[in-house]
Give the backbone structure.
Amino acid sequence: MMNKTELSMNDFIGIVNKKLDEFFIIQYPEDLFKSMKYTVMLPGKRLRPVMCLESCRIFGGNYLDAIPTACAIEMLHSQTLIHDDLPCMDNDDFRRGQPSNHKKFGEATAVLAGDALLTFAPQIILKYSDNLSDETKLRVLNEYFQYAGAYGVIAGQVVDIESEGGKITGSLDDTLKYIHLHKTSDLFKLAIRTGTIIAGADDEKLEIMTEFAEKLGLAFQIADDVLDEISTFEALGKTPGKDKDAGKLTYVSLYGLDNAKCKLACLFDECYDIFKKYDIDSQVFIDIIEGIKQRVKI
Amino acid sequence: MMNKTELSMNDFIGIVNKKLDEFFIIQYPEDLFKSMKYTVMLPGKRLRPVMCLESCRIFGGNYLDAIPTACAIEMLHSQTLIHDDLPCMDNDDFRRGQPSNHKKFGEATAVLAGDALLTFAPQIILKYSDNLSDETKLRVLNEYFQYAGAYGVIAGQVVDIESEGGKITGSLDDTLKYIHLHKTSDLFKLAIRTGTIIAGADDEKLEIMTEFAEKLGLAFQIADDVLDEISTFEALGKTPGKDKDAGKLTYVSLYGLDNAKCKLACLFDECYDIFKKYDIDSQVFIDIIEGIKQRVKI
């Protein structure tokens, strides 16, 4: 059966790109839909949707059932990028090597396109998930609300911004961990958990994958901190060194570059250990991890 | 039975205010939750949640079942106010007589608080609507996504902003109608439709109430345009004359003050006609309509 066949990272990326393109039908007011689609369709690695589809496949689900959810998570991710790039936030003029959304469409449209994506994404889940039961749809939406909002990625972003302004009340270590857990791991958890839920896996498997997602997310964010320090505009597609200039709290600023690389290697080992312990076999997740390792040269 | 008793406008407002206060539990990061709660709890007429509860009551539903949805719609409405007031949008420093959200919490937090409300609101529906079937929950969420997003209130806001910049492609009449229908009527439709759906009313009744909501929303927006022209800061709680200064497309700017008042009276008559024709008895909606009439002195 098609769903049980192991698909490669590139297969999944191709499927996600095709469906994302299809889900956005440009209509009046065109600037709004074009702006929403623009950032979503910038060339990206599609890590989160691929993780969602692969998690579904790992546990014997039909990855086709997870496509609307996977695409919705990429839309949500794009929403966070659009608003993060705004002048009042990280003020970045470039994203994935192209003008950021507000540079292309203006600030007002960028704010509204981000807003629109936040409800467009779960609407896609509802509209196209015919094969999911009502109960599963509600579970998936619940995950979306939990990790997208005030308890998830936005909480991480708020503390991240506060850290720039020096408005930190707790310890630096705890604050950094909080930022990374919410700003990055929460979207990884959302992708991996929903894929696992759609496959119909039990709670024990869901817990295992949640732990895996948390570690992978932390690793990804530390890699991002490292790249901001060592990389170029060409490799990043956005301005490097911005975290440092902004006095941002990052793994590198707090513990130094060597410790960051060391922690990163450690987290990847722990990710592999989880898969080994529970006999989970996934070339796609191996490719994701090895891809990050290669970028940061560890 | 409690649900069948007719409650007054003020009864409903009291219930909504109490529940809204309860739904926001301030937790870390406190600035985020405080900012979300701040605009929601500013003293307001609670028109949309009251309409939702009353629509549920009209068709024999238990209004208690509609409370989470009613409160979610008020949160969504507050979200639109927070983002509308931003410097890149209407740039208003005041809202309901108090500093607007970004003046109080800063622009970055205001953007993120608005974002958070967009998923916090439907999460409240999911979390507290124990008495609704899964099917009804999904129907209500579907309405929320439809009217909150790119097909609803945000589409209206985008065209509204384009109209300020003179970027209008169609006729002025059609564009103004589009703005009013989406920017204002869509949230009225969301409130009234979800209340009607929760009551279990049939599709015919849903259509009637949708038509009613559309007319009431148009009237409300025209009244808003009139008030911007004739009212004071004290009465409005925000800066009057802003639409005119911004060269905004409004009913008054396009057709003049007298025609606006005339159209308003006409729309209210049509609202009453619908209720009369279908034998719908609602003191709450009468109070809402008469309240608006009094403010604009027609």
